[in-house]
Design brief:
Elements (H helix, E strand, L loop, with lengths): L1 E2 L2 E2 L3 H25 L4 H10 L6 H6 L2 H23 L7 H8 L12 H17 L5 E2 L5 E2 L7 H4 L19
Antiparallel strand pairs: 1-2, 3-4
Helix pairs in contact: 1-2, 1-4, 2-4, 4-6
Length: 174
């Protein structure tokens, strides 16, 4: 089955479903660079602003152990498409590959490495999700009831309140 578009089941099913998702994204990346080959500026804008973020949802919702090999495939496809569009070889050596991932303010092209950010993406999503498991107080002082109030002793009742005195999320857990 799929839960919020994330495959859940045995390893064979999950691997096959994620492989299909990754292949579709790779095809879209290649399609952008192929169809806009004569328009390098437009092609780069589509790659940078659209194609580079198509894998983010799965990185956030899959264990990094599962998403890392697929993230590597997405990174390879993005770098290859970028090379076709710009004519610059970013995969020739490690320095060029690392520089491609740097922000433009640091003299890179801002094509972040999905494989290297998989852990941060997953932890960020867990942090965002767990904060909605227990009741919390919003800016107006209203108590918002949430999904699993029984987890309050584990993650810390009040850990996610707007004006939390301790200022520490997951205070009981830490």
């Amino acid at each position: 089955i799929n839960v919020c578009n994330i495959p859940v089941g045995d390893a064979v099913y999950v691997d096959r479903a994620l492989d299909q998702t990754c292949t579709k994204i790779e095809q879209k990346i290649n399609s952008v660079s192929d169809q806009l080959e004569s328009y390098p500026n437009e092609s780069w804008a589509c790659l940078y602003y659209c194609s580079a973020h198509q894998w983010d949802y799965w990185m956030q919702n899959l264990s990094p152990a599962v998403s890392a090999p697929l993230s590597r495939r997405i990174d390879t496809a993005l770098l290859a498409a970028t090379e076709r569009v710009t004519g610059i070889n970013f995969t020739g050596d490690d320095i060029s590959k690392r520089r491609a991932a740097l922000a433009s303010s640091k003299r890179g092209i801002g094509l972040r490495n999905h494989e290297n950010t998989a852990n941060a993406a997953f932890v960020g999503n867990v942090n965002k999700t767990v904060s909605r498991f227990v009741d919390y107080t919003n800016e107006e002082g209203d108590v918002i009831k949430d999904f699993f109030p029984c987890l309050a002793p584990i993650v810390g009742a009040g850990s996610f309140d707007f004006l939390n005195d301790s200022g520490v999320r997951f205070s009981a857990l830490i």
